[in-house]
Amino acid sequence: MSASPRIAFLASTVPNAQQALEAMAARHGQHPPEEADVICALGGDGFMLQTLHRHGGLDKPVYGMKLGTVGFLMNHFHADNLLERIAAAEPAKLRPLEMLAQTESGTSTGSLAYNEVSLLRQTRQAAHIRIGLNGQTRLDELICDGVMVATPAGSTAYNFSAHGPILPLGSHTIALTPIAAFRPRRWRGAILKADTEIRFEVLDPYKRPVSVTADSHETRDVVEVVIRESADRTVTLLFDPEHNLEERILSEQFVV
């Protein structure tokens, strides 16, 4: 990357992020994401995920600065020395999950997830879900509030709150984690190879409807969901050396 990269500044709608957008664009110039060397996302983790979904296909590195509530995927915000920070930043490559959902009406919905794909019951009735891995049934019936599949980058978020494992970045694994499992009561989930194909079949979907969410994209009334790691899509996030993603994921395992 050149010493003066072309930067596309993007910001969430919160006032301080919009103010930072105006100031940073005035100082460093503003370029469309398609023409930029690097994308600079100003906001929180939610906005970072939006940025990856909207512009991940451009294959441009993304440098985020926290101007939101949660900033696990972001660097600290400082108005000064941005070019030096980008030049010294360490890359972290993330590979998203691909989700394909079939609904009761017969439609199909596909989406990517950089954090997790989660199935959740839509009503007071517990969900009944069959789980298959690579074409083989592994759990005939999980009675639960839901179940999720998380990437290493997403394993410290909703997955960890549901008592799922934290996965090291670059471990080539994904987490399969139940949400409030009732039966089997002692099943805590599994750590799987990243290339595992996971198939969820919703049992009795009319009485016990289930929705699926890939990051923030929700599809309701699903009957089957297939999840696999993307074979050809990656995104590169840039992190300050003292604030790199791998170290933060490791540190999360020692928070008491």
Would you spell out the secondary-structure blueprint of this structure?
Layout: E1 7-11, H1 15-28, E2 38-43, H2 45-55, E3 62-66, H3 82-88, E4 90-94, E5 97-103, E6 108-113, E7 116-121, E8 127-133, E9 136-144, E10 146-150, H4 158-161, E11 173-179, E12 190-193, E13 198-203, E14 210-214, E15 217-219, E16 222-229, E17 235-239, H5 245-252
Parallel strand pairs: 1-2, 2-3, 3-17
Antiparallel strand pairs: 4-17, 5-6, 5-16, 7-10, 7-14, 8-9, 8-13, 10-11, 11-12, 13-16, 14-15
Helix content: 10-25%
Strand residue content: 35-45%
SS-derived structural category:
alpha+beta
Distance between the termini: 40 Å
Helices, by number, come to 5
The spatial strand order of the largest sheet comes to: 6-5-16-13-8-9
Inertia-based shape: elongated
Q: What CATH architecture of the largest domain would you give?
A: Sandwich
What is the count of structural domains? 2
Low-confidence stretches: none
Q: Strand count, sense and closure of the main sheet? A: 6 strands, antiparallel
CATH class of the largest domain: Mainly Beta
- Supply the CATH superfamily name of the largest domain: Probable inorganic polyphosphate/atp-NAD kinase, domain 2
Write down the Rg: 19 Å
| Mean of pLDDT | 94
Number of strands: 17
* CATH-defined topology of the largest domain: Tumour Suppressor Smad4
Element order, helices and strands? EHEHEHEEEEEEEHEEEEEEEH
